[in-house]
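User: ok so my PI wants both of these folded by tonight, can you help

Assistant: No problem, let's get them done. Here's the first:
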Amino acid sequence: MKSQKVFAVIKPNLENLNRNLKSMVGARHPVLSAASKHLFSAGGKRIRPAIVILVAKASMNGQNLKASHERLAEITEIIHTASLVHDDVIDECTTRRGVKTVHNAFSTKIAVLAGDFLFAQSSWYLANLNNLKVVKTISKVITDFAEGEIRQGLVNFDASVSINEYIEKSFYKTASLIAASCKGAAMLSDLGLSEQDEYYLYGKHLGLGFQIVDDILDITGSTQDLGKPSGSDLKNGNLTAPIFFAIIECPELQILIDDEFGSEEDISRAIYLIKKTHGIQKAKDLAEEHIQTAINIFSTLKSKNDSYYHHLLLISNYVLERIS
C-alpha cells in the first residue's frame, strides 16, 4: 500500500511510543503487569497515536513537538487498548492482534481488572498534562465507550436499526476517541477554538470511515489479517453497515438473523449472501463519504507545513486502502 509510507515519516515517534507504553503500564502486582505487557507486546497498527502525532506536527507548523503531544499519543493508545480488553470479554473473542486475548491468557477477572487499570493509568497521565481543557475533552471519551457498548448490546440481532443509529453507535465506540485526540493535539499546539473544532470534525469523520472499513473487513477479511476470527461481529449479533445494506436485497439474511446464527454454517451462509449483494460496495461508499468529508474539512486547515498536511491526507487514504 502506497499510503503506508505515512508511518515511515513518524517512525522514530512510534518507536519511542512503543518503548514508553510498556513502562507506562507497569503495575505493582505482577499479574496486572504481565497482562498489560501482554497487550502491548502484541503490537498493533498504532493508527490512533500516528494520527495524533501527525496532527501535532501539522498544527505546530514545523516547530518541534511538545512532550505533551507525544504523551497524548501514548494516552490515546492506552485508552484504545483498555477498551479492547473489555470488548473482548463482552464479545468472548479468543484472539486479538494475533495473540490470545487477556481473558483467554489469564482469566475474565484479570481482564476486567486490567482494562480498569489501563483506564485509570490513562486518566492519571492525562491529569499530569496539566491542561484542564484537554483533560475535559479526552476524559469524555471513556464515557462514550460505555455508552456505545450499551447501545450495541441493546440492539443485538436487531435488523431494524437505522443507518443513522449505526453511525451514532460507531461514533461512540470508535470515532469519539480519534476526534477528541485530534482536538487535544490542536489544543496543545495553542490553536484557536475554530481550528480546534475543525480538527475534531476531521477526526470524527476519519474515525467513522475507519469503523465502517473495520466492519467491512469483518465480512471480507481473513482471521490472519484481522488478528481475530472473521465474522466475529455477526456471531455476536453486532449488525453493521454491510448487513444493513445487504438485507434489503436478500430477505434470507433476516431469517438467519432471527435465528441468531445458531450454527457455524449460518455464519458462513450469511457471509456468502452478503458478498452476493451490493451490501459491501454500499458500505464502502459510505466509508468513502466520511473519508472525503474529513479531507474536505482538513483542506481548510492546510498549514504552512505542507509535508505533514500531505501525510494526514495519506493516512485518510490508507483507511480506504485496507479494503481495496
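One down. Here's the second:
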Amino acid sequence: MTWWRPGWSVVAAPVVLVALVAVVRTAHARDARDALMRADPETILATPALARTALALGHQGFVQHCASCHGTGGPDQARGMPDLTDGDYLYGTGKVAEIEQIVLHGIRSGDPRGWQLAAMPAYSHAKPYAAEPIPPMTPAQIGDMIQFLQFRHGTATDAAAAARGAKVYAGSGGCYDCHGNDAAGDEAIGAPNLLDDVWLYGGSPATLARTFREGRAGVSPAYAHALSPAEARAIAVYVADLARHGRHDG
C-alpha cells in the first residue's frame, strides 16, 4: 500500500500520514477517557492501563487547576492547605469517588452539591456561628481550651485550666457536636481529629488562639463547569495516588 498518488506533491504523503496518526491518537485518547468513566473509580489504580491514562491526565489537570494552592501536594499551614501526601483525610476516607466529588463540587464553594456542612466558629465574635446559637468565648476560656487540647496531646502546663477547657468543649462551646465526644473528628462533615498531630493551620498556642478567635472556613473551588468528567476523575485518581505513594510531582 502506498500513500502517494499521481498528482500529489512530494510533501503531501508525509502530511497525510501525520494527519492520520493524529486522528488515531485522538481516537485512542477518547477511548481511554471513556474507559476511565466506565470503570469503578476505586479499581483504576489497580488496573495498569487505566492507571497510566489517569495519572498522566490527572497530573496535567493538577498542575493546571490545583497546584497554585496545593503546590506539590505537601502542607501549607499559612493558608490551611492540607497535606495531600500523608494519607490523613479531612473529608471522607481517601476514596477516589470522594476526592472526585470535591474536585467537581468543592468545599464551601457555593455549589449546592459540595461539602459545606460545618465550619469552625469565630468565638471572639458576638455571634460565633451563623448556623447555630453558640455563645462567644472569653479570652480566658480560649486559653482554657488551648490547655485542654494540649492536655489531650500530653503537653498541657495547667491541669486546672485543661479541666475547665474540657467543660467548655463538652458544654457551651459546642465543640463535641462536630469533633465528637472523643475529639476524634468527623470526616463526614470535615471536622478534624483533634487527637493526632496533623494540623491544618498549625498547633502552636498562638495559632490555636487565632483559630478560636477568628474561626476557619477554608474553600476548595468547584470545577464541574471547567473540567470534563474524565479530567475530574483523573485528578481524583492522581490525588489518591499522591497519598498512597507520597509523591511530590510538580
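The chain has two domains: 18-109+221-245, 139-214. The first helix runs from residue 12 to 38. Good luck tonight!
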